[in-house]
Amino acid sequence: MTTKNAQSGGTARSVNDPTAKGKGPPADDTDIAAKPIPASRTEAVQEALRQAIIEQKLQPGARLPEDAIGETFGTSRTIAREALGRLAVEGLVELKPNKGAYVANPSLEEGRDIFMVRRGLERTVTGLLAGKLKPAEIAALTKFVDKEHAVSGVDERESIRLAGEFHLLLARMTGNQLLIRYVTEVVSRCSLILAMYGRPHSADCGVDEHRQIVDALARGDANRANELMDGHLASVASRAMLEAKPERDIRDLLAPYAAKIKGL
Question: Region Disordered: start and end of each range (predicted)?
Answer without folding.
Answer: 1-38
